[in-house]
Amino acid sequence: MSSDRYGPTFQRNALAPGILLAILLVVATLLLDSEWYGTLRFVIAVLAIIIGWFALQAKHWWWVPLFAVVAIAWNPVLPFDFAGQGWALAHVGVALLSLVAGVLIKSPRVDDRR
Question: Is residue 60 part of a domain?
Answer without folding.
Answer: yes
